[in-house]
């Protein structure tokens, strides 16, 4: 009968599987499974010898890392490194999952605020004919539908500035024809050789619905 070879190499600790399982459970509880790339160190991952502690129900100040971790543990919270380059590094005592939720929410709000506003320009002459007007009106409707602002202006060249009243009438007509799709941010204003009007797209549900014509009441033919 062939003997089983004897392994003389390093042995795996008997509780290694339990240790790994425990660490996985801890990571899952702290939310690390979903936030490995978040860039924040927590608890035992923090290597500083002392930290500045901030957070609710915490006496702010500088603590040895062991004391700071103990304070977080006593509250059932995490010690989160939020400013690694500060001297000393700054840690917040807070639930890690709640902290990451707030970070994602703040990032989403900042992204929404920084969304670039696209402005499309449409140029008219003071005596634009109906064909050209309707062509540009169609384009303006498309711009507003896609969420862009429309900056429309009448350019007065040379002595055509004498027709500035006609330019104002044209822009007001333009705004009125776009009433279903946009709202006027700025009424016609003359700036040098340009008279400009600004129109923003309406949000969904803001479009003005045209009222159905009322049925005429029957009249009595007999007098």
Structural account:
The chain is an alpha/beta fold. The protein folds into 2 domains: 33-111, Translation initiation factor 3 (IF-3), N-terminal domain (Ubiquitin-like (UB roll), Roll); 119-201, Translation Initiation Factor IF3 (2-Layer Sandwich). Helices cover 33% and strands 23% of the residues. The protein has 5 helices and 8 strands; from the N terminus they run αββαββαβαβαββ. It has helices spanning 16-30, 65-74, 96-113, 130-145, 164-177; strands at 50-54, 61-64, 78-83, 90-94, 119-124, 149-155, 182-191, 194-201. A 4-stranded mixed β-sheet has the order 2-1-4-3. A hairpin with a 2-residue loop joins strand 7 and strand 8. The protein is rod-shaped, with a radius of gyration of 35 Å.
What's the quick description here?
The protein is an alpha/beta fold and 223 residues long.
Main features:
223 residues; alpha/beta; Ubiquitin-like (UB roll); Translation Initiation Factor IF3; 2 domains; 4-stranded mixed β-sheet; 5 helices; 8 strands; 23% strand; rod-shaped; disordered C terminus
Average pLDDT, rounded to a whole number, is 78
- As a percent range, the share of strand residues is 15-25%
How many domains make up the coordinates? 2
Number of helices: 5
**Backbone structural class:** alpha/beta
Number of strands: 8
User: Which runs of at least 5 residues are low in confidence (pLDDT < 50)?
Assistant: 14-26, 28-37, 208-213, 215-223
Overall spatial form: rod-shaped
List the helices and strands and how they pair.
Layout (H helix, E strand, L loop, with lengths): L15 H15 L19 E5 L6 E4 H10 L3 E6 L6 E5 L1 H18 L5 E6 L5 H16 L3 E7 L8 H14 L4 E10 L2 E8 L22
Parallel strand pairs: 1-4, 5-6
Antiparallel strand pairs: 1-2, 3-4, 6-8, 7-8
């Amino acid at each position: 009968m062939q003997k089983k070879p004897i392994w003389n190499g390093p042995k795996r600790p008997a509780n290694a599987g339990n240790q790994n399982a425990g660490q996985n459970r801890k990571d899952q509880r702290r939310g690390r499974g979903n936030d490995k790339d978040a860039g924040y160190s927590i608890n035992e991952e923090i290597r500083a010898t002392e930290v500045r502690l901030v957070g609710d129900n915490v006496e702010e100040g500088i603590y040895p890392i062991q004391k700071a971790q103990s304070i977080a543990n006593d509250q059932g919270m995490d010690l989160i490194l939020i400013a690694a380059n500060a001297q000393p590094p700054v840690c917040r005592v807070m639930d890690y999952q709640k902290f990451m939720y707030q970070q994602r929410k703040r990032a989403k709000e900042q992204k929404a605020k920084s969304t670039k506003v696209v402005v499309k320009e449409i140029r008219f002459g003071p005596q634009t004919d109906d064909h050209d007007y309707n062509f540009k009106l169609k384009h303006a409707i498309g711009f507003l539908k896609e969420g862009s602002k429309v900056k429309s202006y009448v350019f007065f060249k040379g002595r055509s500035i004498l027709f500035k009243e006609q330019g104002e009438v044209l822009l007001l007509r333009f705004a009125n024809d776009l009433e279903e799709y946009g709202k006027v941010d700025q009424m016609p204003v003359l700036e040098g050789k340009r008279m400009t009007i600004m129109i923003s797209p309406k949000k969904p549900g803001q479009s003005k619905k045209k009222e159905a014509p009322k049925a005429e009441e029957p009249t009595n033919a007999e007098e």
